[in-house]
């Protein structure tokens, strides 16, 4: 092992001692580790390599412990944000066992949203060409949007493909594949959706305050075509019966 030179150690000392350390965001234990390295460098010419190695390992152990404590703290927030995001998606799964016949657990979805919850759609240009998806939705309008699709769907399932959590921004991005089956059609349409969920803490819980749904407009168009084909088929059959 090569002993650290005195020049960098002294540079660290100057930075810590000249009042600029606030920019570094180092805690005291971390700075103390550098000070010990500085002192060690000053004595490196007289210390055997075995001693230098032992002190280096000791310093590494202190830093690792500090990092571990920090990681344990942030891990709790990370986990809760991730769990809330996944629960928000999970509440949208097809559930044929609900007593109210909705097949989608709106009460669970509502419990994960703040009182001032808002929802919007993207991407921007595609939404600009689709009036019914424009503007900001409160929870009731968001619920009504989902309810409008249910009568036309036989079933659907959701497969989460990935989650990215931003602890500082208190948000999570979830990519989910919605495989949807229109009533009377065997074709399943894979709707690749990306959710950006912004959250806030309420007591011991995290809730979604704002959701942005990036829609796969190609898949949405195909689903709409299948729905219209079903309606058209029903009108044609009815007309044929009258003619008979």
TrEMBL record:
It comes from the Eukaryota. This is Uncharacterized protein. Residues 1-23 are annotated as: Disordered. Residues 14-23 have a biased composition (Basic and acidic residues). InterPro entries: NTF2-like_dom_sf. It comes from Didymella pomorum.
């Amino acid at each position: 092992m090569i002993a650290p030179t005195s020049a960098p150690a002294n540079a660290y000392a100057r930075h810590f001692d000249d009042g600029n350390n606030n920019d570094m965001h180092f805690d005291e234990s971390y700075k103390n580790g550098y000070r010990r390295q500085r002192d060690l460098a000053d004595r490196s010419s007289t210390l055997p390599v075995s001693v230098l190695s032992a002190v280096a390992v000791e310093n590494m152990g202190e830093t690792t412990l500090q990092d571990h404590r920090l990681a344990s703290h942030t891990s709790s927030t990370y986990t809760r944000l991730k769990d809330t995001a996944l629960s928000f998606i999970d509440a949208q799964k097809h559930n044929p066992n609900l007593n109210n016949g909705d097949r989608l657990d709106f009460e669970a979805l509502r419990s994960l949203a703040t009182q001032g919850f808002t929802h919007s759609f993207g991407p921007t240009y595609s939404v600009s060409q689709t009036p019914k998806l424009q503007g900001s939705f409160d929870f009731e309008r968001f619920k009504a949007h989902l309810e409008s699709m249910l009568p036309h769907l036989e079933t659907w399932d959701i497969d989460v493909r990935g989650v990215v959590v931003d602890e500082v921004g208190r948000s999570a991005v979830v990519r989910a594949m919605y495989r949807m089956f229109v009533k009377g059609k065997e074709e399943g349409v894979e709707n690749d959706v990306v959710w950006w969920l912004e959250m806030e803490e309420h007591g011991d819980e995290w809730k979604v305050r704002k959701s942005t749904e990036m829609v796969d407009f190609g898949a949405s168009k195909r689903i709409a075509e299948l729905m219209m084909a079903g309606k058209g088929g029903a009108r044609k059959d009815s007309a044929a019966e009258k003619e008979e």
